[in-house]
Amino acid sequence: MNSKKVFVFFPDGVGLRNFAFTNFKTIGEQMGFDITYWNNTVFSLQDNLGFKEVKINNHQIHPLTPLYSRARKRAELNVSRDKFKDDVYPTYKFPFNYKGLKNTFKSLYTKWLIGLYSSEKGVEKIRQKINSLERQNPKYAYCKAQLEQHQPDLIFCTTQRATQSISALLAAQDLGIPTVAFVYSWDNVPKAMQVVETDYYCVWSDLMKEEVLKYYPFVKEEQVFVTGTPQFEPHYDDNLKQSREDFFNAYNLDVNKKYICYSGDDETTSPLDQYYLEDLANAVRSLNRKGENLGIIYRKCPVDFTSRYDAVLEAHKDIIEVLDPIWKPIGDQWNQVLPAKEDFNMLYNVCEHSEFVTNVCSSTVFDFVAHNKPCIYYNYEQPQLKKGIRDIGQNYKYVHFRSMPSDKAAVFCTNKHDLEGLVKQILDGQLSNVEEGKQWYEIVVGKAPTEASKNIWSAINTILNK
Predict the structure, then answer these.
(1) With contact defined as beta carbons under 8 Å apart, do 232 and 347 qualify?
(2) Alpha helices in 118-177 (DSSP H)
(3) Cβ contact 398:377 at 8 Å
């Protein structure tokens, strides 16, 4: 039996869903690991879940780290643009903020850094500079003292993209403790979101491994383990399934209706998202006049706190049922809106009991494909689009959408006037993306979506036995 002590490190709350609310811990314990959660979040794993934890109460980062990190990301994107001769990379950049003297100074200083470091050697230097800054950060000494006290054999970091993790991981590496980072999301690698440098990486799929090696030549092949992601494991847990009647009763849905799920997006990705919901409502209303009995389940983006949908929801309250994700704000930042374990149950049953899902470029296509349900992607401009509002069309040009095996991996609606017809064809079984969607799912998520937690622990075991 293995008795190695592993710290599962949460620099922020985004990893809770994958690594606290799934069976990840149980599987690790069954394999003999001594698991402690190294917790930098405001969510107490000890109080809420009874997990053994070491709390990090120092949340400092060096004052210059955010500026250098922004510059690092833009410099990396510039390198990718020039290296791969591809203009998609500048579209990942957020605009600079020039509101007020402080923001203007920060933006100008960041631009100066970008000018200095926009080369492969420059990116390496800026990473070294960030590490140097974070070793001066009081949090470095704080985390080092915790590690010296508890002496873990390995640190598993649940996301590669949090600046809060840099000093802690540097402390571990300086003590000779192996570090592993999980690459959190399907689009993260091409977007230059690798904030940390660890000894090893766990990735979803062969595709993601190829991307890590392509964009980060300092990473060697033997440092990358293809494991899958625990994100989709709950979709294969039959214990979560409710009967249609029980689920509909729980959320006051009409058992006589067929429901289409509208999965909302964040305001950055889809600033006019409410109008696509309105288009779907109008299509459903028209089909109901022709003899259908349809409704819409609106499941908002968990980190969207805007009121932009309110008018549409009010105007179509006879058609749209709002099923908010079971997420809870525990702070005032987007990454302090944390999922509750109960949300797995809700999402499973929304997928299971909806006819299909519609959204703008969301990874929920994979959640629904896991339940053999189709997905419509909206890909047309809204008349409300004007200068200064981001066109959703650029989303589909991003690198991660190039992983689609064909344009049939999702049902694309490219004209508002086609939406009603597409909805009708899917309902009648004449149109589906499920077969091609499953091929895409395997490319992105990997070949064994039910084995991710086990694979990660196996990778950790391999690393510890080196």
Answers:
(1) no
(2) 120-136, 138-150, 166-174
(3) no
Question: Mind giving me the DSSP string for 248-311?
Answer: HHHTT--TTSEEEEEE---TTT-TTHHHHHHHHHHHHHHHHHTT--EEEEEE--TT---STTHH
pLDDT of residue 42: 87
Query: Which residue has tokens 């003590």?
Result: 175
Element (H, E) at 378: strand 375-378
Q: Which of 423, 456, 268 is nearest to 356 (CA)?
A: 423
Would you say 160 and 169 are in contact if contact means Cβ atoms under 8 Å apart?
no
What's the whole-number average pLDDT of the chain? 95
- pLDDT tens, position by position, 345-404: 999 999 999 999 999 999 999 999 999 999 999 999 998 888 778 889 999 999 999 999
Q: Please list the residues that pair with 189 across neighbouring strands.
A: none
Give the C-alpha separation, 92 to 290, whole Å: 43
Contact 258, 424 (CB under 8 A): no
| Antiparallel, parallel or unpaired: β 179-182 and 154-157 | parallel
Task: Record the tokens describing residue 88, joined without a space.
Answer: 């998609």
Q: Determine the average pLDDT of the residues in 56-72.
A: 96
- In 47-129, at which residue ranges do the beta strands (DSSP E only) sit? 53-55
Q: How far apart are CA 295 and CA 238, in angstroms?
A: 25
The Cβ of residue 100 has, within 10 Å, a number of other Cβ atoms equal to: 9
Instruction: Give residue-wise pLDDT tens across range 146-203.
Output: 999 999 999 999 999 999 999 999 999 999 999 999 999 999 999 999 999 999 999 9
Question: Around Cβ 149, how many Cβ atoms within 10 Å?
Answer: 8
Has this prediction a pTM greater than 0.90? Answer: yes
DSSP conformational letter for 94 = P
Instruction: Write out the two tokens for 284.
Output: 């459903």
**What residue ranges define each of the domains in the chain, with the CATH number in brackets?**
5-61+137-228+451-464 (3.40.50.2000), 65-132 (no CATH), 239-445 (3.40.50.2000)
Q: Are β-strands 327-329 and 224-226 bridged in parallel, bridged antiparallel, or unpaired?
A: unpaired
Give the full edge-to-edge strand order of the sheet including 154-157.
53-55, 34-39, 5-10, 154-157, 179-182, 200-203, 224-226
Vertex 74: Cα angle to 140 and 206 (nearest 5):
80
Examine the pLDDT at 1 and tell me if it is beyond 60. no
Give residue 327's pLDDT band: very low, low, confident or very high (50, 70, 90): confident
As a whole number of angstroms, the distance between CA 57 and CA 177 comes to: 21
Nearest to 366 by CA among 237, 269, 231, 268: 231
